[in-house]
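step: validate -> pass
step: tokenize input -> pass
step: predict -> running
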Amino acid sequence: MDKIKIAIADDNRELVDLMSDYLSSQPNMEVVAIAYNGKMCINMLKEHQVDILLLDVIMPYLDGIAVLDAIKEDEDLKAISVIMLSAFGQEAIMSQAAEYGASYFIMKPFEAERLAIQINHIMQNRETPADPKTEKKQRDELINNFIKEIGIPPHLKGYAYLKEAVSLVLDDPDMLNKVTKLLYPGVAKKFDTTPPRVERSIRNAIEIAWSNNETKQLSKIFGYSEEHLEAKPPNSQFIAMVAESLKFD
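step: predict -> pass
step: emit ->
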């Protein structure tokens, strides 16, 4: 069986080494090339056969968006699946990246194991594209199960609102940039309520999740470091975390 060929483009050399070492240790993966800036990345992709590109958003010379644009315009590179490495607070850039062809995102800091899971998930989807109706039903079940696992009781209004909010974001990641203008009103319309009530109910659900779980358990669920999860996140960040986590399943 051929190994998954992975390329990495990130100017953080320490992170690149960590990713490269871990992914190279996986029996079905190999890191075939590494670049530390956008210009190097484009040249690297032209010289190597690559299945998956791990691409940092912010890099010298050419940023991740410019690299995505170059990939989109090159017939020989279009088949490469791109995982964008981003940080919280870069939602606007993530939305732009989605428009340029990036379908997968992972937020820093992340566990290397989750990155490997994401890569395997992408390759499996390539081989067996799902029927849209079946995929939606499975996704709804995943959202339900994940929110329950976090510790949010199903009887809470925030449970239903959060489920719908995550579903909307999975359909349209740009919703994260327009939480008050589009996301909350979209949820409110479905449940015949008001956007402020949606916001309060989701915030209350998040507070319950953080009070019902130790940081260690939340770290296990989301795949982030315990330090990253010590403080309760705002609604938009939490919704982004849930949506991102579901892309691994």
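step: describe -> The mean pLDDT is 85.
step: cleanup -> pass
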